[in-house]
Design brief:
Strand content: 15-25%
CATH class of the largest domain: Alpha Beta
CATH topology of the largest domain: Rossmann fold
Order of helices and strands: EHEHEHEHEEEEEHEHEHEEHHE
Structural class: alpha/beta
Distance between the termini: 36 Å
Strand order of the largest sheet: 1-2-3
Bound molecules: glutamic acid
CATH architecture of the largest domain: 3-Layer(aba) Sandwich
Shape: elongated
Number of helices: 9
Number of strands: 14
Helix content: 25-40%
């Protein structure tokens, strides 16, 4: 059965950019009578904002978005990530790394998403060093995926990313590992999310392969960028959604996604707008761009 999900990190209230991702995954799932799950990605405790998880759920409710089953909190699922890491360790696919950020910065070159780890610890820890993080060994081969919106994406993980972290030096499991483990355990078949995560996708496909997990389909919707070209986020001071006018916010999200909501629907009720959206939703109308500058802030 089609199973989609929305997986926010509770680092702050939802803004129009997060609504665009939530609405896309919701409509994709509901249009085919599929399931839609909500998972709170609350592993990165230093980045969390107290109360944000509840605030996000209340916001989804205010928009009339109903999820299936109970909300899953990653913070209560550490045994699954531990088990996945252990499986990789038994196959010698992960290794402990003792490098500090500074040591990596001194010897690495930049890749698609930050510095490419030069592999310093991949053949064993240098004498006298204590392990800090766990990294997965990647291959010098192309990992590809045909994204339903963005088209073909292709990376050579060894050249573009390097061996990446699955458990951080502070003991926190990395997003890349947790997301793959949870999508598989929750039976997620279709991932619809913001294109800021497009560059992470080959890493996640690779983890699915080495952990022998089912493949998922990917659709990356453009992120909303502000007039300065920055992705809306808590850091860029995006405005929280206006919960006094959810139908207007929903109309704007649909408009951003080029679904061409009729102008008169701006005056319609939330439920009228949702039924319009469920009937008219077309994923192939979404522009195949990673970001779109918008005055929606
Ligand atoms: N938690 C991630 C975020 O808020 C999204 C994860 C995902 O959809 O894969 O950016």
């Amino acid at each position: 059965m089609y199973t989609g999900r929305f997986a926010p990190s509770p680092t702050g209230p939802l803004h129009i950019g997060s609504l665009v991702a939530a609405v896309s995954s919701y409509l994709e799932a509901r249009q085919v009578e599929g399931k839609w799950l909500v998972r709170m990605e609350d592993l990165d405790t230093p980045r969390e904002m107290p109360g944000a998880a509840d605030d996000i759920l209340r916001t989804l409710e205010a928009f009339g978005m109903q999820w299936d089953g109970a909300v899953v909190y990653q913070s209560s699922r550490l045994e699954h990530y531990t088990e996945a890491l252990e499986r990789l360790r038994r196959h010698d696919l992960v290794y402990p790394c003792a490098c500090s950020r500074k040591e990596i910065a001194d010897s690495a070159i930049s890749g698609i998403d930050g510095l490419i780890y030069p592999g310093t610890c991949s053949h064993g820890l240098p004498a006298g060093k204590t392990p800090r993080a766990w990294r997965v060994r990647v291959k010098d081969e192309v990992t590809e995926c045909r994204d339903r919106i963005q088209g073909l994406i292709s990376q050579n993980l060894a050249r573009d990313i390097g061996d990446f972290v699955l458990k951080r030096a502070d003991g926190i499991f990395a997003y890349q590992l947790a997301v793959v483990v949870d999508d598989a355990l929750q039976g997620v078949t279709d991932i619809v999310r913001g294109a800021d995560l497009l560059d992470s996708t080959p890493r996640q496909i690779y983890l699915q392969q080495v952990l022998a997990l089912p493949k998922t389909s990917y659709s990356h919707v453009p992120v909303v960028a502000n007039q300065r070209g920055e992705k809306l986020s808590k850091q860029t001071l995006a405005k929280p959604l206006d919960l006094t006018q959810p139908h207007l916010e929903l109309w704007r999200a649909l408009d951003f996604l080029q679904q061409k909501p009729w102008p008169e629907l701006k005056q319609a009720s939330l439920s009228t707008l949702w039924s319009w959206a469920k009937t008219h939703w077309r994923v192939d109308h979404i522009p195949n761009r990673r970001a779109i500058t918008s005055s929606l802030e």
